[in-house]
Amino acid sequence: MEGNEEDNSIERSILDGLKQLHKFFINKPLSQAHCLFLAVYVIGIQVGFIPQNFFLNRLMGLTQLESWSTFKKSNVEICCNQAPTYEYDSPHETFFTENFITAASVEEDDILKSKLVALVTGDFMMVTLSPHPSTQSLGRSTCLSIGRYVIKYSDNEIPLESCYQKLNQLQIQLRNELFVPVRISQLTLLDASPLPSFMGIPRELRFEVYKYLKSTDLKKLAWVNKAIQMETKLFSTKNNSLSN
User: Fold this and answer.
1) For FRET with 204, which of 19, 55, 144, 147 sits at 20 to 30 Å CA-CA?
2) How far apart are CA 36 and CA 14, in angstroms?
3) How far is residue 92's CA from residue 105's CA, in Å, rounded to a whole number?
4) Is 166 left (phi over 0), alpha (psi -120 to 50) or beta?
5) Taking 80 as the threshold, does the pLDDT of residue 121 lie above it?
6) How wide is the angle at C-alpha 176 spanned by C-alphas 188 and 74, nearest 5°?
7) Which CATH architecture has domain 3-190?
8) Of 140, 128, 141, 118, which is closest to residue 32 (Cα–Cα)?
9) Distance CA 154, CA 161 (A)
10) Cβ(103)–Cβ(65) under 8 Å?
11) Where are the transmembrane segments (predicted)?
12) What number of CA atoms fall less than 13 Å from residue 240's CA on the CB side?
C-alpha cells in the first residue's frame, strides 16, 4: 500500500509540472514524442537541473541546492511556470535539445553545464545528457519507448492524465541512468559531496559533532579520509586556542 501511495505521489508531482507546461501549447497539438520530452524536461528539473536561460537571466526565486539534495519544490514550480526554452524541429518533432545548469552554485560554472538531446527514431526516443566539453567527462544515454509512457498525443481536448502512464517508472529510469550520474560527476569535480554523507552536511554542523567527541575518538575519525583528518586537526587547533 505504501509503495502505491509513493508511486502516485511521484506521478502527481510530474503531472503538476506537465499541466503548467502544457498551457504554453494550448493552440498546438503535441505529438507523443513531444509529450514524452516534456516529461523528461520536468524530471530533469526535479533532479536539480535548471534551464541555462532561466539561470543566466536570474529568474527570480531560483535557489541554490545543497550538494546532497536534488529536489527543491519552489525551483520546480518556478521553472514549470515559465515558457520552456528548449529547441525542437517543427513540425516533425523528432529532435529536441536543452542546455541545463545544475543548481548547486549561485555562480555560473562550466563544470555545472550540460546539454540534453533527444532523438526520435521510430517508436523510441534516445536521450543523452552530455557534460560541458571542458570537463572531459563522459555523458549518459538512455532509450525510452514512447508508447510505454505516452499513450495518446495531446490535442487539448483529452485530459492530461489520459496521455501519460508509468511516470514513476520513467522517473526512476531517467534518474538512475541519466541525471543523477551526471550530477554526481559534476559535483565531484567541484570537490562537493554529491551523496548524503557526513562530509555532505555543512562544516559548521560537523564542528558541532566534533565537540561531543573525545580526543581519542577524533583521532580514530581522522583515519576515515584526508579531508576529515585535516578538518579534525583544524578543529583541535581552534579548540585548544579557545581553551587557552
Assistant:
1) 55
2) 12
3) 37
4) left
5) yes
6) 75
7) 3-Layer(aba) Sandwich (3.40)
8) 118
9) 10
10) yes
11) 31-50
12) 7
Query: 238: which 3 cell numbers?
Result: 581552534
Collapsed DSSP state (helix, strand, coil) of residue 151: coil
pLDDT (mean) for 108-132: 94
- 83 φ/ψ sector (left φ>0, alpha ψ -120 to 50, else beta): beta
| Per-position DSSP letters for 17-34, written without gaps between them | HHHHHHGGGTTS-B-HHH
pLDDT of residue 168: 92
pLDDT tens, residue by residue, 181-199: 998 888 888 877 666 667 6
Q: Compare 98 and 68 and report the one with higher pLDDT.
A: 98
What is the rounded radius of gyration, in angstroms, for the C-alpha atoms of the chain?
22
pTM: 0.77
Higher per-residue confidence, 61 vs 202:
61
Query: Which grid cell is 155?
Result: 490535442
Residue 193: CB partners within 8 Å, gap ≥ 6?
Answer: 67, 68, 187, 199, 200
Pull the grid cell for residue 166: 508509468
Length of the chain: 244
Q: How far apart are CA 64 and CA 160, in angstroms?
A: 31
Taking alpha carbons only, the member of 16, 21, 84 closest to residue 50 is 84
Rounded to an integer, the average pLDDT of 64-86 is: 81
80-97 pLDDT, tens digit per residue, is: 999 999 999 988 899 999
Q: How far apart are CA 41 and CA 14, in angstroms?
A: 10
